[in-house]
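Let us practice reading a record.
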Amino acid sequence: MILALCRWSFPHLSSQFKAVKCSEKDGNLVLSSDTLYHAFPPPLSSLTSLSAEAQEGQVKTRKLNPRNYEARRAGNAVRLYLNTLYGSSSRLYSVTKIHKARTKDMGEAGMKYFLKVSVESWSDESSEWRGSVEVLYPRGETQAPPQVQGSWGGLPQLNISDKEQEFYQRYSAADSAVSGKDIPDSYGNIDPEMKPFWHLARVAASFVMLNESNENTLYNMAQVAKITQLETQDDQLRFELEVLLHDMVSEEG
């Protein structure tokens, strides 16, 4: 299990998130506030050119069993990417099925995965999207997060819905700050009042997990150990969360 301290901001009448940067302190992952779109890695189209071997077509391609951990790991990167960019207090995304998968060694550029996936939106109006996605795990002396690219047409994206606006109005006008711990509890239960905060924690944790991911990890958020509402600044709801992240692949090894 990995302990991470997360700070997340909910902007009023704006679809731009505040996100987190990760640093090490006392063995924990410590996160500080920053603008998501400035901190997030560039799309595949803006990456540097491929190695000479890849440009000449001397790349190794192989098909994967969609149930294989390699395919699942790449599918997990897609889930984390979507939740980082489009998740909210009332919407999360899940890769429900990997239909086809193959991988291609791009030389110095890294290992690229080609997936056909089904993605489901968890919201009041659940919907499913099916399409093709590419995930590149870059190579280099310094670990870089996987790069995800897909055609997201038809995928429900983040809007300030009535439910999200209600959430903002309720907690920005609250007489006392919200706090909670152990979400879910030891029996797997989540108080309905805490469900939006569980969603927000997954959004913030998705940013962390994606940036810490490589070809040897398969992260998932296990629990929100603690959540505290901070003082509202510039019309933004702000929360500090302490979450537990679970690396399943590392433990399998």
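A brief commentary: The longest helix spans residues 69-86.
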